[in-house]
Structures are given as structure tokens and as C-alpha cells.
From TrEMBL:
This is ABC-type glycine betaine transport system substrate-binding domain-containing protein. InterPro entries: ABC_Gly_betaine_transp_sub-bd. Residues 281-301 are annotated as: Disordered. The lineage of its organism: Bacteria, Bacillati, Actinomycetota, Actinomycetes, Mycobacteriales. GO terms for cellular component: ATP-binding cassette (ABC) transporter complex. Residues 38-112, 204-297 form the ABC-type glycine betaine transport system substrate-binding domain. GO terms for molecular function: transmembrane transporter activity. PROSITE patterns: PROKAR_LIPOPROTEIN.
Amino acid sequence: MRTRPSRLAAAALAAVALAGCSDPGDQADLGPRTAPGTVTVGSAGSAASKVEALIYATALRMAGTPVETRLGLGPGEDAAVAAVERGELTVAPALTGALWERYRPGAAQPTKAKEEESENPRAQWDAQFVALSAVLPEGLGLGDPTLALDQPMLFAPKEAPSATLRGCEGLSGAVAVPAGSPADLRGRYGCPTGPVVAVADEAAAARAVREGRAALAQLGTLSPAAQDLVQVADPDGAVPSRAVVPLVRRDGLTVAQTKRLSAIAGELTTADLAELVAQVESGERTPEQATDDWIAEHPLK
């Protein structure tokens, strides 16, 4: 089993302090003291959100919690977050960067301190977690963010020389960008690139790279189109993270229940989630089947 670094526990403590919470109990946990009854876990309409919600729901059930699921809320990927805000859900998967944009629109996202070890991207996640916890609406909290990222990034052919956002090495060629994906590449990655080649979708962007019409493609980290390519390295956290995290009603979970959600944090990776999404989107597995398979391989203790 993977384990989270001890720095995240410190981050959670700092988040409570920043939020001005007065809690005589376990301050490293963002849940309330008592919460009898059924916990309602919901998701947005994407395959990723459904799988994430089912993983959280299964973890709670394994601890003896009665759970009701409401999957595929819509319209929009923020539908489940809005349902938690309204009190219609107890738990929903969210993305750290997307939550920051929701509650602090236009504000620069927090990054790791300059003195942090640049090879440790979790330093950025910790800074983001602390700052985000402090700006959540009253009554909402976060469990530990997972290792799974859901965001557009640059991808290159596996056989190409290694490319990195540190020093902008290997980023001089044309970039295939799907419709609806961020187009200000220099602003997003902090590096000059070759010209943008606009394409219809992520499959077309990956195909442009395979056929030599572009050197790079901008793809979602969970996209099946990215499976035959390699992600451009971002060792210094130049791109703000969108890590999967449970958004919770503080009055809806006990300490023990919130800790069950946090058990997922060190287990669910981007590669894991991308594989599950591919299985669901191809019709190979249902979200429930994909989740059961993952839980069987990752005992949550």
C-alpha cells in the first residue's frame, strides 16, 4: 500500500487553523464529531466522477456506514459540488484546482514555496490543500487529496527525447490542441512552444502526434487518447494541480468516516483512474464493476 507523506497531516492541521475552526476533537481530521444515519455520496456525469464516487462509497460501506449513491447528477461537472453545497449530498468527488477557481475566481492558485524540494510535486498539492481548506464555504470540508490528477497537460511520443517544463526542453514543435482545451499554452505552461494546431477532439490530437503532424498534444491526464503517449514532465509544479479530493459536509461525517475517505488518498493514482475511465468509456466494465476490481486490488486499511 502506498502511504501519504507526513507533511499532509501537518497541512491538514494548518488548514484547520487558517479556516478559524474551533474543534476540541481530532484536528487532523476535517469531519465533525457525530453524524448518525445514511451518508449520501454523489457524482457528476463523467465516468471519472462516477468511479471516484463509487470508490468513496465503497470505502464507507466497508467501515459499516449505510450509504446511498446518486450518480450522474447534472448538467455540468460541478453539479455534484453544488449538491454538496446545498446539503443534498454528504460527499462528492471534486478537483482541488477546480474548487479554487469556484471559490476564488481569478485569484492565482497557491504553489509550493520556492525553498521546497523541486522534485516533490506533492509540495504544491499541500500548499493548495491548505489554502483551499481556508476558503471553503462554512460547513464544507475536504478529505485528503488523492494522487490522481484530472487536467489538460502536454504529451509527447514515447520514442521522442524527454521533454520537460523545467527549462522548456523538447517543447519547440507544433502542439495539437482539441476544441475546448486551453489555447494559451505559454500562459499555462510557462514555456514557448511551436504553433498551435487546432483539432476536433483528443483522439484527433493524439493522431496528429502519431502521424507526425504535431510534436505534442494537449490531452486530459485521464484521456484514453493519452495512453500511447508520455506526459511532459512538470517537476516544479508549473501547472496548478487538479487532484481528486472528497468534498464533504462537515455535519455529515464522523471522524472515523472521514478517515476512511482519507485511506484512498495514497492509493488512487492518475494511472489507476485513467485505466478505470478507459474501461468504463469503452463499455468493457460498468462503473460499479471497475470500482469493485480496483477495491479488490487495493485493500483500504
